[in-house]
TrEMBL record:
Source organism (scientific name): Curvibacter cyanobacteriorum
GO molecular function, one term: cellulose synthase (UDP-forming) activity
Protein name: Cellulose synthase catalytic subunit [UDP-forming]
Cofactor: Mg(2+)
Gene this chain is encoded by: bcsA
Ranges for region Disordered: 1-21
Keywords: c-di-GMP, Cell inner membrane, Cell membrane, Cellulose biosynthesis, Glycosyltransferase, Membrane, Transferase, Transmembrane, Transmembrane helix
Domain PilZ: 588-684
């Protein structure tokens, strides 16, 4: 079985990683020169170096050291990692990974050989539980490094100049219960995709079978597809449409994912270059905040939960020809799709399972990290949790019925990439163990480590520190340090049971549709969703208090052990309280979120006067405009707003909704369907609509990120106390009456 990854052009390697480019230091240049040496082309050198490296690695992880020796060793290797962190280049990233793997493997080796001689059943119960959680985290760390070691960095391939050779494409927009206003924008933008008109057909696949959708599709001239049942949900909806359409390729968009006009021209070139390519995926970008971003006020400041997958992981998968189909913003070649029986229906994550089936058949899948569509994120935490439960259940189903480690057709790199995707969703139980592990000692005196506190620190801290700074370097623009623990803490309780049950019985559970396009009229605290976090917070606060009492009043207390467990408990308090902050739902009164963008515009008043200005933001319903200082236009004034793209101008009737200090807000006034389509072409469908901000965040700074998470934890406790008071006051008032 070959482990050779997909071979990209040299230019692909030159454009990988956030640290790609000129090496910043002399040591970086030396390391890269060594890596490019012809010496490595010799097979003898490769095998000999591999054997030597393995022997040295085995020695490094297994040689026994006393406390002082281990501390010196850990300090030296971490100092080396800090020096490497200042050096740009992919080779130094790999060197940091090597140091991290060495520190973590050494910790796990020591953990299994020196710390599990438990003396009673209580120690064994809690101790072995923690060991299993650590082994899970270690496996995810190792495969994650493999998966992200060298992102491919695929670039667009130009299409042939002769447009007559361009294939026919069917655009599928599946919908079930979403509002027409949400679906309209996607339809308008799909209609404006730059492609020969005789080879582009747009279809709305309506599993809700709604008359207003049929009427809308007839009015704008797009196809409308329904079926007699809703079997297999979205997958069945698409498969039914495949039987009644004939495009050579199918572009699929969730009904709230709005494509740019350049989508096909940017993406289709790879299908001409690679005859075995069956699917090409682009990132999922969201122009509205998800519940974490909305409730924690981190939108556009902190990478959201999905950015790591679309920014690094998918690009790393691409090197190994294991890019996942993600259900939307993708193109699939019809012939290979029909060869595997259409979209997979055996699991509720039909998208990833479809990609797995294509790879098993020997077809290639690809990922192009250029945002060419954007959509609506889930509005509420409960909706977000429901969506993640479905993803987790589906991955557990695939692990049972079509495990990538088993069966034909996959190379080792593909198997590991799919395996890590599935392992990821089993984090529920390990995360809960980490959130409660120190309480075993604080409450029950259970020794989950059969070692001294100082030895635990000497081995565990290097493992954690190396993993932290290495992942910070790899993921820095797409996932900030310590935020992964926040995301997992919020979701752990809710995905644990569905994942375990689906793994035991893959037929359990059903497809649930994620609601989009709603509003939250009043802020509220979701007590139902917050219950697990509240229990964890109270338990850890009590554990910390017990630790303080023992340190203060028990003369025979193991102070060092208590302090270490209290520090761990304090960190768990931060995570639990941050989870509570996410459960405090903020208001969301706009049905159509606004997109920040600076576009050329003009205002035409009823008296004929024209003012040149520009947009601050736009939505389907209105614009925010920057106007010249001193311009005063009363609220309620009717006017016309022009938007421009190159030589195109769109003119839209509008009403002023607010004004002052060089800003003006307008609401569009009864736009016709033709005007709505033109507005979409000038705003959401612009080729550069989403690429300007993608991957442009500041590089992660671990200490700053920790400070940010701690601040959110404090905010969570404050919000909890405020909402407890609010919930008690009405009862008190009622009793008084």
């Amino acid at each position: 079985m070959s482990s050779t990854p997909a071979q990209p052009d040299k230019a692909h390697y030159d454009n990988t990683d956030s640290n790609a480019g000129e090496t910043g230091t002399r040591w970086g240049r030396v390391l890269n020169q060594v890596a490019d040496s012809p010496f490595w082309n010799s097979r003898v050198a490769q095998y000999g170096t591999g054997v030597l490296a393995f022997l040295l690695f085995a020695l490094v992880i297994s040689v026994p050291l006393d406390l002082m020796e281990q501390a010196i060793f850990a300090a030296c290797t971490f100092a080396m990692a800090l020096l490497l962190r200042r050096t740009k280049g992919r080779v130094t990233t790999l060197a940091m990974m090597t140091l991290s793997i060495s520190a973590s493997t050494r910790y796990i080796w020591w953990r299994l050989t020196d710390t599990v001689g438990f003396e009673n059943w209580l120690d064994g119960f809690f101790g072995f539980g923690l060991v299993m959680a650590e082994l899970y985290a270690f496996a995810v760390l190792l495969i994650g490094y493999f998966q992200t070691a060298w992102p491919l960095g695929r670039k667009p391939v130009p299409l042939p100049a002769d447009t007559s050779t361009w294939p026919s494409v069917d655009v599928f927009i599946p919908t079930y219960n979403e509002p027409l206003e949400v679906v309209k924008q996607t339809v308008f933008s799909a209609m404006s995709i730059d492609w020969p008109a005789d080879r582009l057909k747009v279809f709305v696949l309506d599993d809700g079978r709604r008359s207003e959708f049929r009427k809308f599709c007839e009015e704008v001239g797009v196809g409308y597809k329904v079926r007699g049942n809703n079997r297999h949900a979205k997958a069945g909806n698409i498969n039914a449409a495949l039987k009644t359409t004939d495009g050579e390729y199918v572009a699929i968009f969730d009904c709230d994912h709005i494509p740019t006009r350049s989508f096909l021209q940017v993406c289709m070139g790879w299908f001409f270059k690679d005859s075995k390519l069956a699917m090409l995926q682009t990132p999922h970008v969201f122009f509205s905040p998800d519940p974490f971003e909305k409730n924690l006020d981190t939108f556009h400041r902190t990478p959201n939960e999905g950015e790591l997958f679309y920014g690094i992981v998918q690009d790393g998968n691409d090197l190994w020809n294991a890019s996942f189909f993600c259900g939307s913003c993708a193109i699939i070649k019809r012939a290979p799709l029909m060869e595997i029986g259409g979209i997979a229906v055996e699991t509720v994550t039909e998208d990833a399972h479809t990609a797995l089936k294509l790879n098993r058949k020997g077809f290639n899948t690809a990922y192009l990290e250029i945002p060419q569509a954007a959509g609506l994120a889930t509005e509420s935490l409960s909706g977000h949790v429901g969506q993640r439960i479905r993803w987790a259940r589906g991955m557990a189903q695939i692990a049972r019925i079509d495990n990538p480690l088993l069966g034909p057709g996959l190379k080792i790199g593909q198997r590991l990439c799919y395996l890590n995707a599935m392992l990821h969703f089993f984090y529920g139980l390990p995360r809960l163990i980490f959130l409660t592990a120190p309480l075993a000692y604080l409450f029950f005196g259970a020794h989950v480590f059969q070692a001294t506190a100082l030895m635990i620190s000497a081995y565990a801290l290097p493992h954690l520190a190396h993993a932290s700074i290495t992942n910070s370097r790899i993921q820095g623009r797409y996932r900030y340090s310590f935020w992964n623990e926040v995301y997992e803490s919020v979701l752990a309780w809710y995905i644990m049971r569905p994942v375990l049950m689906a793994f035991i019985n893959p037929k359990l559970g059903k497809f649930n549709v994620t609601a989009k396009g709603g509003v939250i009229e009043e802020a509220y605290f979701d007590w139902g969703i917050a219950r697990p976090y509240l229990i964890l917070l109270v338990a850890n606060l009590l554990g910390f208090a017990v630790g303080v009492w023992q340190v203060s009043f028990q003369p025979d207390a193991e102070v060092t052990t208590l302090v270490i467990n209290m520090i761990w408990t304090a960190y768990n308090i931060i995570l639990s309280s941050a989870s509570l902050a996410v459960a405090s739902e903020s208001r969301q009164v706009r049905v159509t979120p606004r997109v920040a963008a600076t576009l050329p515009a003009a205002i035409r008043l009823e008296n004929g006067k024209v003012l040149t200005c520009q947009t601050d933001d736009y939505s389907q319903q209105g614009l925010g405009l920057t106007v010249p200082e001193g311009v005063q236009i009363p609220t309620g004034t009717r006017l016309q707003v022009s938007l421009f793209r190159s030589d195109d101008e769109g003119i839209f009737p509008a009403v002023v909704t607010f004004g002052g200090k060089g800003r003006l807000g307008v609401r569009f006034d009864n736009l016709s369907l033709a005007q709505q389509a033109e507005l979409a072409a000038l705003t959401f469908s612009r080729a550069d609509a989403w690429v300007g901000t993608w991957g442009q965040r500041q590089q992660d700074k671990p200490l700053s990120s920790l400070g940010g998470v701690m601040a959110i934890g404090v905010r969570g406790i404050r919000q909890l106390m405020t909402n407890i008071v609010k919930s008690v006051r009405p009862r008190t008032t009622s009793n008084a009456k």
